[in-house]
Amino acid sequence: MRSMQVEADRSAILVRVRRLSPDATPRWGKMSAPQMLVHITEAMRMASGDLVVRAKRHPVRLPVIKQLMLYVVPMPKNLPTAPELVARAPAVFDEELRAFAEAVRRFAGRDPTVAWPDHPVFGAMTPHSWGVLAHKHTDHHLTQFGL
């Protein structure tokens, strides 16, 4: 599985993000390219523990369903998201690109031996599961914009 914990996978994601243009048209969904960039940045900040997102009770916390969602099932289109991940308005596009790269850097530099934050839907997560989910989520949204 690809993971934001793996240098080559992170680098490939950063290359794809740099190809995003502010006027790109999504293949699905309602977010503009700048809004999507904010969304994936805030998701990386959540994974690092830099952004607190309120927990939700959800059946995917069940271990079997959680494992299927993280490692087997493709990410569905048009899922609802946490309000905290879409609350911030986009800044200048180049600043948002830098903010995403910084959020990825902070995520990659997080100590794997300390406690990682819970996911608002999946609950407790290991560094490995955060890395896989962060890559899967970012890849999903880059694919949304044809990257």
The major pleated sheet works out as: none
| Unreliable stretches covering 5 or more consecutive residues | none
Taken from the alpha-carbon principal axes, the silhouette is globular
Spell the H/E element sequence.
Answer: HHHHH
Count of alpha and pi helical runs: 5
Helix content: 40-55%
- The averaged pLDDT comes out at 95
- Terminal Cα separation, in Å? 19 Å
**Any idea how many domains?**
1
Give the percentage of residues in beta strands: under 5%
Which structural class should the secondary elements be placed in? mainly alpha
Q: Tally the beta strands.
A: 0
Report the C-alpha radius of gyration, rounded.
14 Å
Secondary structure layout:
Layout: H1 7-18, H2 33-48, H3 63-71, H4 93-108, H5 127-144
Helix pairs in contact: 1-4, 1-5, 2-4, 2-5
Notes on the structure:
This protein has helices at 7-18, 33-48, 63-71, 93-108, 127-144. The chain has one domain (7-21, 33-144). The model has no long low-confidence stretch (mean pLDDT 95). It starts with 6 loop residues before the first helix and ends with a helix. It is mainly α.
Short description:
With 147 residues, this protein is mainly alpha-helical. It has helices at 7-18, 33-48, 63-71, 93-108, 127-144.
